[in-house]
Design brief:
Strand content: under 5%
Number of strands: 0
Helix content: over 70%
Largest sheet: none
Number of helices: 6
Length: 158
């Protein structure tokens, strides 16, 4: 398109009007800028695709994913067992059990007073009017069925 080596520079020397001149320098600057912008756009798109894991993603093997899930579940199980131990200690001690009961009594009273405020009542009414309860129930049932189906499939295979 624009070749520096084959450009006839003498043509502008013979031009008598501005309309007869070839503005090669400015055309070259515009084309160079457009090419840089296009290449930057392509590189940005590739980086974005890679960063969002839409391209160039190496999928983990099924065994690795199962092993990773098992590690996470073992960590959660350990935390739940620790929580159970703390809960047992709290409920065996009379003073700590009384503090826990007082906390939940105070929490209930505080939440009741918050939910009785006029602004909160009107906001909840607005949300409930705009909500499609049947659609929400169908979505929740679909989610629960998919999770239970996956658990059942793992139990059958494992």
């Amino acid at each position: 398109m624009l070749a520096f080596a084959s450009y006839e520079y003498g043509r502008n020397a013979r031009a008598t009007t501005a309309a007869g001149m070839d503005f090669f320098y400015w055309k070259a600057r515009v084309v160079r800028g457009l090419l840089v912008a296009v290449s930057d756009g392509v590189l940005a798109w590739i980086i974005w695709m890679t960063a969002t894991k839409r391209a160039f993603v190496v999928r983990k093997a099924t065994a690795e994913r199962v092993e990773e899930c098992n590690r996470v579940l073992e960590g959660v199980l350990g935390k739940l067992r620790g929580l159970g131990a703390v809960r047992n200690v709290v409920f065996r001690d009379t003073a700590l059990r009384g503090r826990v009961e007082r906390y939940w009594v105070n929490e209930e009273g505080m939440m009741r007073s918050v939910l009785e405020e006029r602004e909160v009542v009107s906001a909840l009414a607005g949300v409930l009017q705009g909500a499609d309860v049947d659609r929400l129930n169908r979505e929740a049932e679909g989610f629960v069925d998919s999770v239970l189906g996956q658990v059942q499939a793992v139990n059958e295979n494992g």
